[in-house]
Amino acid sequence: MKSSDVRESMREWNHKWYGFWNLTGRDLPYPRAMDVVDRAFVPADKPRLIEYLKSCPIAIQCMTQHEFQCEFCDEYHSKSTFQSDGEWLWPDSLAHYVQCHNVALPNSFVQHIRDRAYVPCSMNTPIDINHLDWPELEIAENN
User: Fold this and answer.
1) Number of neighbouring beta carbons within 10 Å of residue 11
2) CA-based max dimension of the chain
3) Which residues pair with 82 in a beta bridge?
4) Residue 136 — very low, low, confident or very high, per pLDDT cuts 50/70/90?
5) Would you say 100 and 72 are in contact if contact means Cβ atoms under 8 Å apart?
6) The dihedral of CA 12, 15, 19, 25: what is its sign?
7) Most confident stretch, 4-13, 31-40, 93-102
8) How far apart are CA 21 and CA 97, in angstroms?
9) Phi and psi (nearest 5°) for 76?
10) If 29 and its partner were Cys, which of 23, 110, 112, 135 is the partner (CB 3.0–4.6 Å)?
11) At what angle do helices 107-115 and 46-55 cross, to 10 degrees?
């Protein structure tokens, strides 16, 4: 995807979750990490944005630990550990993708972090994942 297309999709992102990648190549309502790489995503505060992503507490950690390999390098990440600031939810691997592979963040997420003055929430800040606007998955059954 061209940088201008990535920037447009980041302007239009209207969810409160991000970084849940389509790792299958099938037509799913999640982007592939490679589709949101933008080498021009270099805001002056990018290190502070990355630190915020890393510093927010873990909101969800599943008992079974499954890992996946980064699409771009040999690093492995957990499929079952997610961070939150009480409003947004993201996998703990998102900071890696932004820092090491120029994955862009949605404009609304960047503005949210800036509005919070880059200060992560406390460990006790809850998030209700049931009220996040998850995409509908329509599974066609083959008969």
Assistant:
1) 11
2) 54
3) 60, 91
4) low
5) yes
6) negative
7) 93-102
8) 11
9) -105, 145
10) 135
11) 80
User: Can you tell me which residue has the tokens 């980064």?
Assistant: 70
Residue type at 128 in one-letter notation: D
* Strand, helix or coil for residue 90: strand
For 94, the enclosing helix (H) or strand (E) is: helix 94-101
Gap between the Cα atoms of 105 and 15, Å rounded: 12
- Nearest-angstrom CA–CA distance, 87 and 124: 13
Phi first, then psi: give them for residue 37, nearest 5 degrees.
-75, 130
Average pLDDT over residues 19-24: 83
At a CB cut-off of 8 Å and minimum separation 6, what does 18 contact? 88, 90, 94, 105, 106, 109
Q: Which amino acid is at 18?
A: Y
Q: Give the residue among 113, 132, 126 at the shortest CA–CA distance from 53.
A: 113
* CA-wise closest residue to 18 among 118, 27, 26, 9: 9
| Type of residue numbered 46 | K
Q: How far is CA 123 from CA 50, 57, 74, 76, 85, in A?
A: 18, 5, 30, 25, 9
State the DSSP H helix or E strand holding residue 6, giving kind and residue range, or none if neither.
Answer: helix 3-12
